[in-house]
Design a protein that fits this description.
- By secondary structure, this protein is mainly alpha-helical.
- The chain has one domain: SMc04008-like (SMc04008-like fold).
- 67% of the residues lie in helices and 0% in strands.
- Helix 2 packs parallel to helix 6 and helix 3 packs across helix 4.
- This is SMc04008-like domain-containing protein.
Length: 110
C-alpha cells in the first residue's frame, strides 16, 4: 500500500513539535501495549492504516531528514521489539471474514 505524505506545513516551533511527538508516543503506547489485541487487519479495515503503516511513515520521515533506516529498524522503533517477535506474541492469522472485509474496504477507498 502506498502512503501519501501529509501536505507541507510551515516550520513549527519547539513546543508544537514536542506536543506532536508526545501524542505520537501515546498513540504507539496505546496500540502496542493497551490494545495489542486489536489486529493490524482490523485497523486497516476500520481506519485505513495499521502499525506497519506507522512504521513506514516513521521511516519516510527519517529518510526525509537524511537518516537511512531500514523497514525492520522502523518496525522495531514502532513495535518496541523486532516485528517477528511482536507478531508471534500478538498477531493472529486473518479470518476469511477479515480478509473479505479488508478487500471490500480496499475497493471502497482504492
Amino acid at each position: 500500500m502506498s502512503h501519501t505524505p501529509p501536505p507541507d506545513h510551515p516550520p513549527q516551533d519547539h513546543e508544537t513539535l514536542a506536543i506532536e511527538a508526545a501524542a505520537f508516543r501515546r498513540l504507539i503506547a496505546h496500540l502496542m501495549h493497551e490494545r495489542s489485541d486489536v489486529q493490524n487487519i482490523d485497523l486497516m479495515i476500520l481506519a485505513g492504516f495499521c502499525r506497519n503503516c506507522l512504521a513506514d511513515w516513521y521511516r519516510e520521515a527519517a529518510d526525509a531528514r537524511g537518516i537511512a533506516m531500514s523497514k525492520d529498524e522502523a518496525r522495531e522503533a514502532v513495535y518496541g521489539m523486532p516485528f517477528a517477535q511482536w507478531k508471534a506474541q500478538h498477531q493472529k492469522d486473518a479470518t476469511p471474514e477479515q480478509l473479505a472485509a479488508f478487500e471490500a474496504a480496499q475497493k471502497q477507498h482504492g
